[in-house]
Design goal:
With 272 residues, this protein is an alpha+beta fold. The chain is built from eight helices and five strands, in the order βββαββααααααα. Strands 1, 2, 3, 4 and 5 form a five-stranded antiparallel beta sheet that branches. Strand 4 and strand 5 form a beta hairpin. The longest helix has 19 residues.
Amino acid sequence: MKYPFKRIDPDTLEDKRSAWHFLKNDGRTEFGGNIPPDDGDWWTVAGTVTLCCWGLHASERLRHALAFAPGDLLCRVECADIGGTDQEKIVARHRKIVWRVDAAQQMRAFMRRVALDVADLWDAPEIAREVLKAPVRDEGPLGIDDSPERKLACRIACEAANYKNGEATARNSSQEERVRVMAAQAAAFAIGRRSHPQARAVHYTINAAATAKAMAAGEDLWRRAWEKKPILQEVTKTYGDWLETEALTWRPDLMINSAPSADKQPMQNGEQ
């Protein structure tokens, strides 16, 4: 059922922050299956608000919200009366959806651009590059292009990504081969079919591409803690900022009626 909402005077709210949140494709929350209030109405919870236990959660950075996405219904939200934070999320007593959009196609197009950004690192064949550059088509039972070209490109990327042998093989390989494996994994995530949300696939694609770039720059990712991986952190942030900049244009009243295309230039460091 639809969750009740409360009319609130915005001037009475404290510590308001803009953030991102995903809903399931049917518009319900992942836990409890509640239907949030309409856009513009505040949702308020009672009780003690605690991170990961009780309250209304969101992520201030879109790249962090990807990992928690139960679907592809992307929501730009405002949160107030923050009860806790960590590196990836916040929890609040009040949350309001400013706007929401089904971002599945935009997510598919974005991860193809990320995969294209590292295509040279695994010498991607022309068929894979052409599929990654093609406009996203909403076809097939999972909303993925069901063409023979896509299937062939996916098979090539999966084989290059060494999926049969897994991480153990990557650990025992040369740095150059590890770069090739991770770059191919980005393409496999971007092209392949999947049962999980497109937003989760974007998360995996960004991680694979950023890992490939960091290793290509000489960073040893197998023996260092996260805080000792500055190149990986910077590349991951760059992809995340690129995604967030684009997502702000997906607001329904700004959307252009055209198929998303992967044939765009990657965002360079320092662009806003």
